[in-house]
Amino acid sequence: MTHISDTTLQQGLANRRQVLGDAWVEQSLRGANRLNVEFQRLITTYAWDSIWSRPGLDRRTRRIMVLATTAAMGRWEEFELHVRSGLMADAADPQAAALDVDTLQEVLLQTAVYAGVPAGNTGMAIALKVLRELGQEPAPASFFPSQP
To answer: Virtual CA dihedral for 101, 74, 84, 6, nearest 10 degrees?
Structure first.
């Protein structure tokens, strides 16, 4: 992939850093080797520049779509990555595509209906695991709506 422009690669890296965070991107770049370096360049330019730079959808919507798609396909490592980076993102920065618990709940309810209850169930378990790890465990709630 020697035809990749530096501008495209740099813009893709900038988008990737804004959405996934510097630590994740640095870990990926440190792991580059002769086998995977072209793949790293491919996803950085194709996914993170060509797609994530498009004006048709804001980044938060794109993240929500990634969550629904990866859950529907059972791509749980990518689902967890976007749950974690979304919850850790700066809510004041629209380019960071931050998530909140209410949005995550809605994505998982929608996913359960359209991709199946097992996908929603696994997605919920992963989301709760990540929330706990981030010290953001949701407050207890009564199963019965009429009880506080």
So the answer is: -130
